[in-house]
Design brief:
About 30% of the residues are buried. Helix 2 crosses helix 7, helix 3 crosses helix 4 and helix 4 runs parallel beside helix 6. By secondary structure, this protein is an alpha/beta fold. The strands form three sheets. Strands 3-2-1-4-5 form a five-stranded parallel sheet, with helices on both faces. A two-stranded parallel sheet has the order 6-7. A two-stranded antiparallel sheet has the order 8-9.
Length: about 300
């Protein structure tokens, strides 16, 4: 990314980030490895506090909180594993050996991260780890809210990472600054932007597909678990399941069997952290069109669609 930007028009922490990007501070693999070590150590130090904050914010079960934390730590390990000091040294001295370095890779420069409100901790760590491993300076948007996870991250991350290559922003900076960055937007509504953006729209429907070669027992378990996990607010919870007509009946029976324990369940959680912007219920729309609803509970149902 073009690093040209008037640092005087931005908060002091952005000036440091711009300078760090110009200096190429994150190009060094050993530097990135040290940042990963400090990040993981800081998370492990505050692990109990993070789990408690996630639980209070989301209302998720102990197992779901543990899953989010483990997956976040796995992201750190996975991205750290792709860094090799020996390989970086070999690539750096290609020119000295008279060899071309045509496959050289360089980070975007400055990455501005807008995390989603669902599983905030995992969303932040996953994006942060990827941006760090790629050799970028990072600005993380964490506004002051009532979220305990956000407040904890605001106090933990700055102490773990170098202030010359990492900063937290309380509000969205102007377009001039964003145009010098790569914006990783996990809350995207799909609207066009004037700055480089890597979007993850959170308003789209999620569809699961079960074909005739599927293991129906495993498919039913996975679909039901995905639908009800995290109080059904996950962006990846299937809104609709497309099933091959030759295996539809046995699949529906298995889904009803595994979903039975959720009958009458409110699946309530933290209402302040919705899965996505509120939309008209898909089930209500189907019922109004005369679709047969086989079984339903609070906020969910199994409906049979014959007409494609």
């Amino acid at each position: 990314m073009d690093s040209k930007s008037n640092s005087q028009s931005h908060p002091p922490q952005f000036s440091a980030i711009i300078a760090g990007n110009i200096d190429g501070r994150t190009d060094n693999v050993r530097y990135r490895q040290r940042q990963f070590h400090r990040l993981q150590a800081s998370i492990l130090t505050h692990l109990a506090e993070l789990k408690e904050a996630i639980s209070q914010d989301s209302g998720h079960s102990v197992e779901e909180v543990q899953t989010e934390v483990c997956l976040a730590l796995k992201e750190i390990r996975s991205h750290y594993s792709c860094l090799s000091l020996e390989k970086s040294v070999q690539l750096e001295y290609r020119v000295a050996r008279g060899e071309d370095h045509l496959d050289r890779k360089k980070g975007a420069g400055i990455v501005y991260i807008i995390p989603t409100t669902h599983t905030t901790f995992y969303s932040v760590i996953a994006a942060l780890s990827a941006a760090l491993a790629a050799g970028n300076c990072i600005v993380l948007e964490l506004p002051k809210t009532t979220s305990r996870v956000t407040a904890l991250l605001r106090s933990v991350l700055p102490g773990a990472l170098d202030s010359d290559t990492f900063a937290i922003s309380e509000s969205r900076p102007d377009a001039d600054f964003l145009s010098t960055t790569l914006v990783m937007d996990q809350q995207s509504s799909g609207c066009p932007t004037t700055y480089p953006t890597l979007e993850s729209p959170n308003t789209l429907r999620t569809v699961a597909v079960v074909d005739r070669t599927a293991n129906l027992q495993e498919a039913a378990v996975d679909v039901v678990q995905a639908r009800f996990a995290f109080d059904g607010r996950s962006p990846y919870a299937p809104d609709a399941v497309l099933v091959n007509q030759f295996c539809m009946q046995p699949f529906v029976e298995l889904v009803i069997k595994h979903a039975a324990k959720h009958l009458g369940s409110d699946n309530h959680g933290a209402s302040s952290l919705p899965k996505r912007p509120r939309q008209a219920s898909l089930l209500d729309k189907l019922e109004s069109e005369g679709v047969k609803v086989i079984v339903s509970g609070t906020g969910w149902g199994v409906a049979l669609l014959q007409n494609r």
